[in-house]
């Protein structure tokens, strides 16, 4: 047995990442930010189960010098893990946590958080804080090309994991809290040449521009700061857009403010808009729609549908038909929700008067941080449940009642926490068929985490909690089965992979990457 | 007439200023040797204190930051306060800047196009080194080398390749427990695991139980005879080419 095993593990690793591998979704590898194109974050790995989880133990810890807030989900290809920090990519031996190479962009003009890499062919793609898309050689970290895609002097930056498909790489911008015009770009994976740009805020005279009462598009927001999802069969990209600007001062931008706080469906070949759906028209609470647009095929009202599941920062869990953007249903997934009585048949909120920010402050729920946010939910086809980190919190919403200087990161007010009503996180399992909560696990902690989930065919859902712990719960019933305290705040979502027949679970904490596996012999 | 006088005055002032900066750096060097060398190394390459010659630290700091660190020390570290007169501290700061200035910013004689022809041709550099994906995998990537190393280090790397081996590029041969021999560079090595990139660009991620023997070479695989193989002019041309490699540069 031993020689055979040795031969297996010592096999050289030379495989490229093909588009078909990305379409196939996670197996032993984890090849996109969400594991798959659909944002489901569900792994078919089943070695770690409720029965053996008690033997799950730390295997290695990798420290990233100078980091403070790691937000990346690492990718794994054939035993090599690709992790990012601000302006850095680290390639690690996934079994041992030892570094293979490090690419550090010392020229970058901005230190920002970073959410990870994209893989395609022999290339690793990531963005720098000052919005360069960088292509590296997967084997050495050698620089292939570096392409600026936004101007930091105008207030733009970049934090997302790029999305690679076929021959191209899609990237979005951050900076929407400071008065920039959001857009999405596609670049040639081979050369870095720009293939198209889609502005999330229409220019003067274009369809949708009537929803802005002449507010200048170049300040209007609608950033694209989180990775989107993709349906290879429909050949459509789904990208969530950020808040309009000034975030908390809506008067100068009367109207719905398209396409902010929306999901846009685009053709990846051309960047052409197929449809859009706006969750929060004329947002004044900084409710970016950056929760993940999760693509799931399931039966709804008696027939199979191609759905888009979306737990929005505004407190409602939406179901859309992703072929055409048709609104199907929205249900509250938090109790602290008082800005709208519900969502009408067309998908528009039925507003409660008096919830707009004022100079003195208005209490409204959910909080500015949102009922959920960019932390990843997961959808398990095995249980049919949708696992969503949910925050019960209200804020005092204050507006400055003026348009701040653009490009400086000034929002025009803010959401202030209410000291008598501290926020509390829950992991909630929602049934997409009904929108109902099936189970929940309350968390302890300060209400400040950004950690998400991964579900597995082993019948588990792993999630980072608000108290610095990685938790494993039984995916069907929500029983907490295992926890490990990392001693650091969590701002990233976990993932799982397999090397040499052994399943591992990895999560980045504030300054270190932790990897867990079953102890030998189990 | 007046504009000519003005121009002359201006040029004179500029010359004095530039000369002044050079002189300040020279004066700084003398002070450095006596005051700083014990911790930062006589060449500034570190010891008990960090390396201030490779530029990684110095590039992150403004002149004011460095001035303050020297005058007041760095709290929480072993860097003590050195309350020299202000002009001497400024001389030190000027010296740090000159010491760590990347080759890209240096005035490099030579013809970069002729250097490129050497790099991709007769000098055989692309057997191991790549620029923008063109070249080999076993040597350090040189796509931005002009931003990463001072000119003297580029020169040293070509003329004395074994003077210092870059982390992750140590030549290694491993014999696995099933009897295969794999040669390449060690990206990382501990008593418990070895990450090896072979000459075909394949990664081998090995654990201790998977190898029988590991042999390292302390000699760089780079030819040690470039001083003889290249003329002085050719070396200048190669330096001119390498110093301009700055793919990661911001405009």
What does this structure look like?
- Chain A is mainly β and 522 residues long.
- Chain A contains two helices and 38 strands.
- In chain A, strands 1-32-33-34-35 form a five-stranded mixed β-sheet, with no helix packed on it.
- The longest helix of chain A is centred in the N-terminal third of the chain and has 9 residues, at 2-10.
- Helix content of chain B is 42%, strand content 15%.
- Chain B contains ten helices and seven strands.
- Chain B is globular.
- At the A-B interface, helix 1, strand 6 and strand 10 of A face strand 5 and strand 6 of B.
Keywords, separated by commas or semicolons:
heterodimer, A: 522 residues, mainly beta, five-stranded mixed β-sheet, four-stranded antiparallel β-sheet, globular, disordered N terminus, B: 251 residues, alpha+beta, five-stranded antiparallel β-sheet, two-stranded antiparallel ribbon, 10 helices, 7 strands, 42% helix, 15% strand
Radius of gyration of chain B: 23 Å
**Neighbour order of strands in the largest sheet of chain B:** 6-5-4-3-7
For the secondary structure, the number of strands of chain B is 7
Parts with pLDDT < 50 across at least 5 consecutive residues of chain B: none
* Main sheet properties of chain A: 5 strands, mixed
Q: What proportion of the residues of chain B is helical, as a percent range?
A: 40-55%
Could you spell the SSE succession of chain B in H and E letters?
Answer: HHHHHHEEHHEEEEEHH
Give a nutshell description of this structure.
Chain A is mainly β. Chain A has helices at 2-10, 19-24; strands at 42-43, 56-63, 75-77, 80-85, 88-93, 99-104, 118-120, 123-127, 132-137, 143-148, 163-165, 168-172, 183-188, 194-199, 229-231, 236-240, 262-266, 273-278, 294-300, 303-311, 316-321, 326-332, 340-343, 349-351, 362-364, 378-380, 385-392, 395-399, 413-417, 424-430, 437-442, 453-456, 460-464, 469-474, 480-485, 495-499, 502-508, 512-518.
